[in-house]
What we know:
CATH superfamily: Uracil-DNA glycosylase-like domain
CATH class: Alpha Beta
Distance between the termini: 34 Å
CATH topology: Uracil-DNA Glycosylase, subunit E
Number of domains: 1
Helix content: 25-40%
Radius of gyration: 16 Å
Number of helices: 9
CATH architecture: 3-Layer(aba) Sandwich
Amino acid sequence: MVNLSAAEETLQHVAQEVSNCQRCQLHYSRKNAVPGEGPANACIMFIGEGPGFHENEQGRPFVGAAGRYLDELLEKIGMQRSEVFIGNVIKCRPPSNRDPLPEELAACGDYLERQIQAINPQVIVTLGRFSMARFLQNVKISEVHGQSFQVRGRLVLPMFHPAAALHQPSLKPQLERDFASLPDLITLKDKATPVESQNDTQPKAEPKQLSLF
């Protein structure tokens, strides 16, 4: 059971640290860091890749076109953004929305882990391959999306990134089906496929693949 006041305090501390972070080169080009947002007792935590242009401008996650689509997907399953926690594996926008570098992922790893520990969500939904790689390595998102896995005692559900579905509309039906499974997963979280513990501080990137797929 989450100690709500302690969890809220942890999230506030992380957000403050992120806003002043200089752990990697991204702090030179950012306008606003994007620590993430949502209730400290959220049962679902969405983890994307990194902030884009609009997120960098506002300091909030998923506020561009992909964010609007995410809101639509949540509405289709009877949920609202205010009920879930939304964040990213990196907290500052990479220049030109390039893929995050291994050292950037490592620099933000502690922030994300502290958020996960504080919230203790029932389900972690990874959006895109860089987020997925934090929990599931050496797999392809096209092969495992929509399947639930028990990773280090947590239920992890990999999905395509909403931005990927916007750029490639053929992915939309798959993403919407994956979202439709979320309500049931919350009540059946103990039936996921177990996966061996993997290093969660420096996920293995696949630089030759397109981002978000």
